[in-house]
Every structure is written in structure tokens, then in C-alpha cells.
Structure to design on (429 residues):
């Protein structure tokens, strides 16, 4: 039997369809009030999915009642939980040493550097003094982030030591990392490794600002690179070198992020051992022919999947861009009535009357969108022109009653109210 650790973010995914051979005998741990959907024989719920102890105890109750053979985890928050449970019950799949390397940004960079991957200067940070000491050794802007964070939550860019007191309390609340700020274009590579060998890898370039665009209320997304682009092969090769540098697992779906500097050097940002967050799965589905979470679920659960067909589809796929609009600091008064021309898979993820102001706005993550969509085109120029047009059309279709002081249009610098909130690791990017 397959035990699914079902984060609220992944509620509604068609597990019975994806894991059809096991439909009717699936097991799940999820949060109170979440319907896991059809195909589940037994479900344990917890009051708070952030409560690691509660989730693991619920999983143990299911393991005690049933013969669990595989554990499936799609969310960042579940990567280490699933690995620990596999270790405890001697089940196939990624184990704790590997899972930790894909979660802990300090350990990740230590191993990557030892494997010859270029990484930014970095150090663990448990106090403001640690950050100040690092800045004394590495003058210039630095980035402070939770060691196990996701979705850009809790990330702060500090220009001078005078900025450190503003994040001192947050750093004391849990393990953080400080690293040098790397200027350059920002890429991600989404890749599947199974059966001891690479299966497919898709390099993409983030729009300006990347995962931090939501700080200025700007939309963000990414687009797949043309195969003839020299960076395509270089990023693919660097991703597989990075996977080889980290502790192995029988199979992995990874979401790696790299900077490419003005000097054309590839520098690691970080890598996650799971499928990228919304709206990346929709973009990858357009490339692979299947939802990547579908592919990964079957591979992780040792169910057959035609990987040769996935490879061929990726080889011949058109260029695809994903894009999403973040929430504003206020209440939504109007939502789009129909998809803008030129989009596909257009999804409105909010409704008129919904309030994104105040604390909810301050706690937003890079994966929080009010609308997402895809566009495709035969070349990069046409693709980016279509991205710009559909962004403007979608922005105009939303109406907002903004809180006092909120900008009426994207592009403003972050205000103190927009300072990222402490980590709440339920959403992935």
C-alpha cells in the first residue's frame, strides 16, 4: 500500500488517477477538513500540518494498521518526514542523509562545493553577530534565509551592517544561512533521475526579479531555453554534477536554481528534491506531455511509466513560458471574466471580495498567485512579447481596493510592511 503525505497545497490532485493500480487502497495523512479525493482506503488527519510530530505519529498509525510499501511526498515540508519514515520502516526511496542535503542550505552548499560546484560564500547564522561577522569578511550585499525554507519566505537582502538589526529577532528564532549576494540572470532546471541515470532535464530562465518579484507586487514566471542556447547544455550538465555531489537516492525529481553572472559563470543558488511549485508543473506538463507530479508519483511508487516517451516529448516540445500575478495589499473587487487572448491553462486563483491585505499580504510567498497561465511560441522573441501582453491584460482585468499606502500599480520598492514573514513552509516554489 502507498502512503501519501498530503500537504494542503496538494489537496485536489488526482492520486487515484495517477496511481490507478493502487486506487482504492491508498492511505493518506493530511490536515483536518481536507478531502483527499477518491481512491483512499484510510486517512489520518492532523490539526496543524506544520506540526512535524503530529504528522509522523499519524503516519505511524497508518503503518501499524496496513502493510505500507511506499511513501509518496510531493511537498517541500514532507521531504524529510518521508525520508525519516522510510528509514524507520525500511522502505525504498530517499533516506534522511539525502533528504537533509536537499533541504538544509548550509549542508547542501558544503557538499556541492566539495563536489566542484561553484557556490557563493556562505555560513550558518544563528544570531545577528554571525551575520555581522560574515559581512565583515565579505563586504557588499548579503542574503539571509532560513536553512530549510521554501518559496522565498523569510529571505532578506541586506545592503549594509546597518540593516542587520531589522532581521535579528527572526534569525534568533531558528537556523538561518547568510551568503554573498550574486548578481546575474536567474535560472531553474527541473530534472528527473531514475534507475541510476538521468531521464530528462528542462532548463528555464526566470523573468527579472525571479522569485523575489512579489516583493514589488510584480508578476513573475519563467520560460524554457531553446536547445540551441549554449547555456542549455551547460545548465543540464551542472545539474547532474550537483546531483552527483549530494547523497544518492534511488530516484529524484529535482528543482535546481542557478545564477549566471555577467562573467558567464554558473553559481548555485539552491536545489530542492521535489517538483517545482506553481505554476512550474503546468509549464513542465506542456514540455513532458504529463504533469511532472504524475510522472514523479509513478516513479517514486515503482509503477510503470514510459520514460522514453517523456524524453522524446521534451526533445521536441515548443518553447513554453509560465507566468503568475501576485496578490496586492488590499481587497479584490474584480477578477477576469475570460482568459486573455494567447494564454493557455489560464487559472484565476482568487475571487472578488477576497482580502489579501495586512498580515496575509506580509506573509505572502513567491508561490502565492491570484492568476497563472502559460503561453507558447516558436521562438524566444515572440514568446516574451506574448508574456508581456498577457501580463498587462490580466493586470488590467483585476480590480483592487488597496490599503492606505499601497501602490496602485506594480513596481514600487518594498515597504517595511512588505518585509517577508517568518517561515510557514506549506507552499513550494
Amino acid at each position: 500500500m502507498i502512503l501519501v503525505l498530503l500537504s494542503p497545497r496538494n489537496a485536489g490532485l488526482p492520486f487515484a488517477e495517477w496511481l490507478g493500480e493502487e486506487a482504492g487502497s491508498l492511505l493518506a495523512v493530511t490536515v483536518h477538513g481536507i478531502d483527499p479525493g477518491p481512491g483512499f482506503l484510510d486517512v489520518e488527519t492532523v490539526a496543524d500540518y506544520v506540526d512535524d510530530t503530529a504528522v509522523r505519529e499519524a503516519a505511524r498509525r497508518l503503518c501499524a494498521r496496513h502493510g505500507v510499501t511506499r511513501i509518496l511526498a510531493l511537498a517541500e515540508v514532507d521531504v524529510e518526514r518521508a525520508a525519516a519514515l522510510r528509514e524507520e520502516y525500511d522502505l525504498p526511496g530517499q533516506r534522511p542523509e539525502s533528504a537533509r542535503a536537499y533541504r538544509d542550505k548550509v549542508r547542501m552548499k558544503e557538499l556541492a562545493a566539495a563536489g566542484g560546484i561553484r557556490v557563493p560564500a556562505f555560513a550558518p547564522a544563528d544570531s545577528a553577530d554571525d551575520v555581522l561577522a560574515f559581512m565583515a569578511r565579505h563586504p557588499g550585499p548579503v542574503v539571509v534565509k532560513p536553512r530549510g525554507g521554501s518559496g522565498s519566505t523569510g529571505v532578506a537582502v541586506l545592503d549594509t551592517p546597518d540593516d542587520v538589526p531589522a532581521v535579528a529577532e527572526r534569525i534568533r528564532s531558528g537556523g538561518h544561512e547568510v551568503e554573498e549576494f550574486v548578481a546575474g540572470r536567474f535560472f531553474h532546471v527541473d530534472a528527473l533521475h531514475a534507475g541510476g541515470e538521468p531521464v530528462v532535464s528542462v532548463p528555464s530562465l526566470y523573468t527579472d526579479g525571479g522569485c523575489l518579484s512579489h516583493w514589488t507586487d510584480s508578476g513573475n514566471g519563467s520560460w524554457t531555453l531553446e536547445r540551441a542556447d549554449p547555456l542549455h547544455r551547460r545548465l543540464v550538465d551542472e545539474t547532474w554534477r550537483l546531483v552527483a555531489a549530494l547523497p544518492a537516492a534511488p530516484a529524484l525529481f529535482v528543482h535546481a536554481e542557478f545564477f549566471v553572472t555577467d562573467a558567464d559563470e554558473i553559481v548555485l543558488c539552491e536545489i530542492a528534491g521535489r517538483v517545482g511549485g506553481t505554476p512550474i508543473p503546468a509549464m513542465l506538463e506542456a514540455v513532458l506531455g504529463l504533469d511532472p507530479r504524475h510522472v514523479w508519483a509513478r516513479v517514486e511508487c515503482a509503477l510503470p511509466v514510459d520514460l522514453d516517451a517523456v524524453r522524446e516529448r521534451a526533445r521536441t516540445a515548443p518553447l513554453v513560458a509560465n507566468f503568475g500575478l501576485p496578490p496586492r495589499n488590499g481587497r479584490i473587487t474584480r477578477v477576469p471574466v475570460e482568459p486573455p487572448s494567447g494564454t493557455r491553462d489560464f487559472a484565476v486563483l482568487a475571487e472578488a471580495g477576497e482580502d489579501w491585505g495586512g498580515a496575509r499580504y506580509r506573509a505572502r510567498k513567491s508561490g502565492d498567485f491570484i492568476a497563472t497561465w502559460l503561453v507558447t511560441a516558436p521562438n524566444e522573441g515572440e514568446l516574451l512579447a506574448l508574456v508581456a501582453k498577457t501580463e498587462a491584460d490580466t493586470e488590467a482585468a483585476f480590480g483592487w481596493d488597496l490599503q492606505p499606502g499601497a501602490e496602485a500599480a506594480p513596481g514600487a520598492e518594498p515597504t517595511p510592511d512588505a518585509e517577508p514573514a517568518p517561515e510557514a513552509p506549506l507552499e513550494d516554489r
Summary: Confidence is low (pLDDT under 50) at residues 409-428.
